[in-house]
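Hi everyone, sorry if this is the wrong subforum. Our group has a chain we'd like a structural model of before ordering constructs, and none of us has done structure prediction before. Sequence below.
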Amino acid sequence: MKLLFIVLLQISTITQKPDSLQEKWKARIIQKIDSLTSSPFLENGFLGLSIKSTQTGKNLVAYQSKKSLAPASTLKLVASATALLTLGENYTYKTTLEYSGQITDSVLKGNIYIKGNGDPSLGSWRFKNQPDYKQLLDIWAQKIKALGIKTIQGRIFGDASFFNHNVIPNTWIWGDTGNYYGAGCYGLNLNENLYWATFIPKGYMEPAGFVKTAPDLPYYSKINKVLTDRAGTGDQVNIYATPYQDVLLMEGFVPMGKSFSVKGAIPDPAFFAAYALGKKIEELGIKIQEGPSSSLELEKRYLTHTKPNETLILHTQTSPTLRELAKECNFNSINLYAEAFLKTPSTVLNMGTSTADAVKALEQIWRSKGLNLNGLKIKDGSGLSPSNGISAEIMTDILSTMSSEKVFQAFYESIPIVGVSGTVANLGKKSKAVGNIRAKSGSIENVRAYSGYFTSSSGELFCFSMMLNKYDSTYGNATKELEKLMILMTDLSK
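Answer:
Right subforum, don't worry. Here is the predicted structure as tokens:
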């Protein structure tokens, strides 16, 4: 009899009609979650979800919200939020061109320095009112020429000492680090540390010819193992390289057809900056007696170099504001920018210049805001590491906290709009989600995630985080499943 009562109670609970629109909304979300988690698609995988009111900080819906899952690029929200919170939306990076020594009879008895400040956007092509790297090199060369120098009895240094020299987070995958998206974040970056490698395809499965890199990187050895695949197969090239080494190993496939270019990561952008400026200066008729270098390059060669205390600044290149940089980062999911956002606060606050130092500083910053960070196990700022872990609960706690900060509008506007912009421009078409949800997407192998904000029909702002890990794509499409959940979210009425 007791068992029958329990069964009847369960049936009554299940079949009881929700007494409010919000309860009906919750029921639809939960029904979708149940359908998803009981399917072969997620039988061996994980879903973490949190939908939270920014007014109360309370969860409306939570499913495994305390489980630490890989967030992929949604982690960029944490890095950009931390940078905006600590540095302010008007913070700018400043890179200086300096020289030491004396100029006598058109001879500089000293060195030229390009002193980095961690700016990930230096020489980038993305900003209308900023010089790209070629224009910037011209500006620097003209500044040096204006001194009346005809000979430099020294060398040009790329100074990347602003950040720790160990620029690759320990848990990044070897197959990522030579490619553009896996570029390390140095104290001196240039052109987003990007180069293009161009190949000439041949017959099917025949070796593709290597043509060039742009910009030119003649001081690197290129080992070309790239083959030709069928037309239309796209970029299947991996470039293997590590910071400061002088070998680029290229493997994989390019499609048949015309010349084909892929993006790689410059292994030492400080040295590249010094080399490229040296070539530009020589084009102006200025002789340089010693070759380009960086402080780390000299350390590698068992030489010592201490920058003189007294240098004169020839030019200061100021970056776009952090507000602009955060928008570019989150709209286009630029790993390099997110890594700079992670490391800059700890460096500026004298809490350390390495990635590990930056993670500790980030945790300290958010704990000071009263957040419980149990389940936060991050390894980088961009989400590229598969070892990253964050719970949906922590993600929405950060998003909710940001909603009451002075920099919130800058942060909010840095997040793409579903169906309209950024990496979520093609989601939610012809649904209520279009224009209503701001979401950062995240995707690495067997991980798909979205986090951001949406507004209810009453005008209340909510934040959310949803992460899929270890799903089986044989039985479904992770993007489509999370898209359905986001569309359901926009049905919230109060």
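For your construct planning: The chain has a mean pLDDT of 93. The first helix runs from residue 2 to 15.
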